[in-house]
Amino acid sequence: MQSRKNLSVFTVCMMTVAAVVSLRGLPMLAKEGLSMIFYILFSPVLFLLPASLVAAELGGAFSGKGGGVYTWVKEAFGSRWGFVAIWLQWIQNVVWYPTVLAFAASALAYLFMKPDLAGDGVFTGTVILVCYWGATFLTLAGSDVASSVTKYGALLGTVLPGILIIVLGLLWVDQGNPLQFLGTSGGSHAHPRLFPHITGLGSVAFLAGIILLFAGVEVQAVHANEMEDPGKQYPASMFLAAIVIFFLFLFGSLAVAAAVPAEEISLTAGLMQAFQLLLGKFHLGFLTPVVGLLLAFGSIGSVMSWISGPSRGLLETAQQGELPPVMAKVNRKGVQSTILILQAVVVSLLAGLYFFMTDVSVAFFVLSAMTATLYLVMYILMYAAAIRLRLTRPDLPRSYRIPGGTPGMCAVAGLGLAGVVFSLVVGF
């Protein structure tokens, strides 16, 4: 197997950004007007911050071992619970792949200058199959290829379009154009709402969905031992990624909300709506297809950041005897070939929903709901493991420790647990 000590802080940071940030979440936030600021400040406190801190401590403590969340939970509760944690992380992202690639399909519809294709199930399903199998074969080519595509996918397909929409939004404000988020639906001029208007469980469930936009910061922990000094570099990459994620979501969603009236924002194609409007305003409409291509590339990079993460953790469980031996098979590059092919087959079956459901948004919603529920249970195990390891193994070498000793860990992980339980309950 090739030597793999070649991942830098920046590369792992970009891989983490690719795993967490999907610009498809910006329209969902933008539809809330100024209330989005509350959601974006609330969600990192309950989710992004605790997950980043816990992942930094556990990732540094077990940086010499593969498996990520599998290793963390196994060290705390035993290999069976470790398997449950990594299986939940793996199966939830298998279900998630079609949803993020459906966003890629809507972006490609603008590349072809046919926005109506974004609602076409056959077109969407075909794009999912082609992109996912392409990402699978790139991952099978080895960690160098996978990390490069992921890094540049995050840079060119997530960070660059994110910065572009922010710059266009600032130009929109600078030229004195009307700020759409200062009005309300229907064009009236009522005072904009800073705090969400909670009208029932549906409103609370929406908040839970926003929290999940910040999930996934821990997934690249399986690559910590591919860094030169993982004990220090991995925590640094976590903190840098958390900062990038927060600012992209905050200013990106504000830019969309500034230009597009809330009632006109589409959840699936809203970002391209904003790009089309803003680029046209500044006589740059010819760049719309280019942006569509970049966003699609970013979605592929996001998928690749997940393909190689949880499946690597699942490989660790197979090598420990928790799965049939055939699942432990790797190719000459050391990549988990059997697991990746099985994963692609399952994703292909799920993509079939888009071929048979007349409403693409229904398929999108069903898959998203399945994803959220599975993922939240894994976070409960991760936070519980962090607390237990502080109590049972206080002398375990940790390159980074959450401040405040055991009470500090209990407070941070407890806050994360509160956010997860809240999301899990209202999500149903």
For the termini, the CA-CA separation is: 45 Å
Q: What structural class do you assign from the helix and strand content?
A: mainly alpha
Radius of gyration: 21 Å
Provide mean pLDDT, rounded. 80
Per DSSP E runs of 2 or more residues, the count of β-strands stands at 0
Largest sheet: none
The fraction of residues assigned to DSSP E strands is under 5%
Helical percent range? 55-70%
Distinct helical segment count: 15
Query: How do the helices and strands follow one another from N- to C-terminus?
Result: HHHHHHHHHHHHHHH
| Uncertain spans | 184-191
Cα shape: globular
Give an overview of the whole structure:
The protein has 15 helices and no strands. With 428 residues, it is mainly alpha-helical.
Key features of this structure:
mainly alpha; 428 residues; globular
Secondary-structure blueprint of this entry?
Blueprint: H1 9-20, H2 25-30, H3 35-61, H4 69-77, H5 79-111, H6 121-140, H7 143-174, H8 201-212, H9 230-259, H10 270-281, H11 288-307, H12 310-319, H13 337-356, H14 360-392, H15 405-427
Offer a quick outline of the entry.
This protein has 428 residues and is mainly α. Helix content is 70%, strand content 0%.
